[in-house]
Amino acid sequence: MFSIEHEFDATVVTLVDEGTAPLGEDVIIHMFEDCVTIEQYDPRTDTVQTITLTNKQVQDLTDSLNPP
Question: Averaged over 40-65, what is the pLDDT?
């Protein structure tokens, strides 16, 4: 399941794991004008892990998931 929210400076997509246990933590994607951040809580370290991708990296990722 997912939700999409449009905020002032970003679009926020939240991915919620559904199904049988063990479930993964929610993944939160912030899409800004110049980059995308992906966040997920890590219960092992009790911290939120964040990855920042440039728009070019996002395009490369999209292309790799949809090869010709």
Answer: 97
Lookup: tokens for 22: 């063990």
DSSP per-residue codes, 12-42: EEEE---SSSSPPPPEEEEE-SSEEEEEEEE
pLDDT, tens only, 6-41: 999 999 999 999 988 889 999 999 999 999 999 999
Buried b (16+ CB within 10 A) or exposed e, 12-41: ebebeeeeeeeeeeeebbbbeeeebebbee
Cβ neighbours, 10 Å, residue 10: 16
The pTM of this model reads 0.87
Phi, psi of 7 (to 5 degrees): -105, 180
